[in-house]
Write a structure and sequence with these properties.
Layout lengths: L16 H9 L3 H14 L3 H13 L7
Helix pairs in contact: 1-2
Length: 65
Amino acid sequence: MARLLYRSKKNKIFAGVIGGVGEYFDVDPTILRLLWLVILIATAVVPGIIVYIISVYIVPEHRES
């Protein structure tokens, strides 16, 4: 069964994108959020925010079956 990337409903602060990435790769979302913060600072914030907003619209929210 193929794994799919979804926005998390339980590991979310804003939209659940980073929580979903953490669940997909089985990594603690807190570590990914800290890494995302470093990337935001290194890229002068705006490109990182644009990528996050695009991810909110592209990555579907997880639906419980």
